[in-house]
Amino acid sequence: MWSIVYYVADGEPDPSVSYGGLLELLDPRESANYIQIPNTVLDGRTFVECRPGRMVLFPSWVKHMVHPFVGSGVRMSIACNVNVVEDIHTKRPQDFKPATAKGETSGTA
Fold this sequence. Notes:
Layout: E1 2-13, E2 23-26, E3 45-48, E4 55-59, E5 64-66, E6 71-82
Antiparallel strand pairs: 1-4, 1-6, 2-3, 2-5
């Protein structure tokens, strides 16, 4: 599963509101979120700014959230989740039909 965000318009965010409208991605290592030292490997959060034309793609299992947008104008983003499924055709034992009553086997391939 993949999550995708595409930013269409950024509006006019209120500069006095910290993190307003930002996408926040949290480090998947649980302990990394207990000790957060900014600008180091121990910074457990990443913020993504809303910029028109920007597309962000990340694994859906990464904890994420969007901070409330405060400001004027229109802020527009398109978000979706995509599940990529690979169709694999192999000749595994479970892919063959069971033996017939006479002890013969018949495969599907």
